[in-house]
């Protein structure tokens, strides 16, 4: 004999009614919660990302220059030491493979 319960216990220990409406509402709540978490994560990333790539972390994989990095100041990366002597975009780079304007150390040329 198969017995169908009037309630469903979820993996978090909460219990909902075993009805189509209750299940639909539960799925809606979970979807909203996930969307809210994604939105919050994206907002946090936008607050700390500079939009540039970090050449130091780029050796491992692509990492963005972040405002919460110990080397970041309002003027940019503290590894910037001088004004570029020439345009370096497209030239070989030991950190980024090729110098480009996406690098946090680039400002009309390499500033390292």
Descriptors for this entry?
alpha+beta, 112 residues, two-stranded antiparallel ribbon, rod-shaped
Described by the principal axes of the CA atoms, the overall outline is rod-shaped
Distance between the termini: 76 Å
Instruction: Count all strands and give the number.
Output: 8
Q: Main β-sheet: number of strands, strand sense, barrel status?
A: 2 strands, antiparallel
Q: Unreliable runs, pLDDT <50, ≥5 residues? A: none
Class by alpha and beta content: alpha+beta
Share of residues in strands? 15-25%
Radius of gyration: 25 Å
- Structurally, the number of domains stands at 1
Strand order of the largest sheet: 1-2
Mean pLDDT: 89
Give a quick rundown of the structure:
With 112 residues, the protein is an alpha+beta fold. It has one helix spanning 20-48; strands at 7-9, 15-17, 49-53, 64-66, 72-73, 76-77, 92-93, 97-98.
Description:
This protein is α+β, with helices and mostly antiparallel strands. It has one domain (15-98). The protein is built from one helix and eight strands. It has one helix at residues 20-48; strands at residues 7-9, 15-17, 49-53, 64-66, 72-73, 76-77, 92-93, 97-98. The strands form four sheets. It has a two-stranded antiparallel ribbon with strand order 1-2. A two-stranded antiparallel ribbon has the order 3-4. Strand 1 and strand 2 form a beta hairpin. The termini are far apart.
List the helices and strands and how they pair.
Layout: E1 7-9, E2 15-17, H1 20-48, E3 49-53, E4 64-66, E5 72-73, E6 76-77, E7 92-93, E8 97-98
